[in-house]
Design brief:
Blueprint (H helix, E strand, L loop, with lengths): L1 H12 L3 H30 L4 H9 L1 H34 L5 H8 L1 H4 L2 H12 L6 H6 L8 H12 L1 H14 L2 H8 L4 H30 L2 H7 L9 H10 L3 H43 L5
Helix pairs in contact: 2-15, 3-15, 4-9, 4-10, 4-12, 4-14, 7-9, 7-13, 9-12, 9-13, 10-12, 11-12, 12-15, 14-15
Length: 296
């Protein structure tokens, strides 16, 4: 009976070879035209005038400032989003409380709101005519057109990534292991450190990678709050825009190629984390099929 079922399933899901070749070829052609060719063009244009012009563009003080600011924004926002994401995922996956669905909805808010709107919200709050603008001016505190505003904008657009990767993973794991550890006398912190964290480490890495990639490449929200002050508030994406608008194409593509290189490195690490995460989820499903539900 099982062999017959497997044979029917195989016939139902196996297409003729020419359809498979057509689908795979079409997908590869699409990737080559719309992804690989533009990516290759970025590097080709960056090195069009030779390696000396390329590295000279990256050594420019404005470019160095943009690189540093991008790393600062990512270096602050990613750890904060990591702490928030783990805490939110743990609360949502392991506990029942009022407002749980509202919290899930709020986590998804940056996915629904345009980054430009997010930047405008901060302008309305911290601008000269904003809600807190007068108080900030009186106390000589600068948020807009300074590093704090850029960090806040980056935080807003990136905070769902870690939580959204961890919530389904932690829900699939259930609460039995944590309950067993607490029953045996482990404290809440030790239970998290020894039981929960090892089970979600690849999910955390995957979420951090996505969060970091978005933080380094964010344009819309940062553009609104930065003021485009050269050498001070321009991140790498903003620096690319300025250089391109000035027809300094080699410098613009040099900075863009650095972003593209970071994206490729991120993609490799993401693939490794995704593979490990898929293995963990498959192990959870296998355990579920053998022993039944682990939570209910």
């Amino acid at each position: 009976m099982s062999a017959v079922s497997n044979t029917r399933r195989s016939r139902a899901t196996t297409e003729p070879w020419w359809i498979r070749v057509l689908l795979i070829g079409g997908a590869l052609l699409f990737l080559a035209v719309f992804l690989l060719a533009p990516l290759a063009a970025v590097f080709a244009e960056a090195f069009r005038k030779g390696s000396e012009a390329y590295f000279a563009a990256l050594k420019d003080p404005d470019a160095i400032s943009a690189i540093k600011l991008t790393l600062i924004a990512a270096g602050i926002s990613v750890p904060l989003n990591l702490v928030f994401g783990v805490a939110a995922a743990w609360a949502i996956a392991k506990f029942e409380f009022r407002g749980k669905q509202l919290l899930v909805t709020l986590i998804d808010l940056p996915f629904a709101v345009s980054p430009v709107i997010a930047g405008l919200i901060y302008v309305l709050m911290f601008g000269a005519q904003g809600l807190f603008g007068e108080w900030l001016y009186e106390h000589d505190i600068k948020i807009l057109f300074a590093v704090p505003g850029i960090v806040l904008a980056t935080l807003f657009v990136t905070f769902p990534f870690v939580a959204r990767e961890l919530i389904p993973l932690m829900q699939a794991q259930g609460t039995e292991e944590e309950e067993a550890a607490i029953t045996l006398g482990a404290s809440g912190f030790k239970t998290f450190w020894r039981v929960t964290l090892p089970n979600i480490k690849w999910g955390i890495l995957y979420g951090v990678i996505l969060c970091n990639a978005r933080a380094m490449g964010e344009f819309g929200a940062v553009s609104v709050v930065s003021g485009h002050i050269r050498g001070l508030t321009n991140t790498m994406p903003l620096q690319v825009e300025i250089l391109y608008n000035e027809y300094n194409f080699v410098a613009a593509f040099a900075v863009a190629s650095l972003l593209a290189f970071l994206a490729l490195v991120t993609l490799v690490i993401k693939s490794i984390a995704e593979w490990q995460l898929a293995k963990e989820i498959q192990a959870l499903r296998s355990g579920y099929e053998e022993t039944g539900p682990v939570y209910g």
